[in-house]
Amino acid sequence: MPALIVTGDTAPDVVAYIESGRIPYLHKPVNTNQLTKIILQILDASQVNTQPMETA
Length: 56
What we know:
The chain is an alpha+beta fold. 43% of the residues lie in helices and 11% in strands. It is built from 2 helices and 2 strands, in the order βαβα. The protein has a two-stranded parallel ribbon. The protein is elongated, with a radius of gyration of 14 Å. The mean pLDDT is 87.
């Protein structure tokens, strides 16, 4: 499941905890260009199907 952490917390222990995982993160305030870029990278990496599901 694709994920992105957006946080305003910059405490060293919190940053270390986030970095110990494999989920990308951004600190607030978020630059919209950077946010868009990382979302596109996450979606591309996960090969998420963005097509709507057909219903019977």
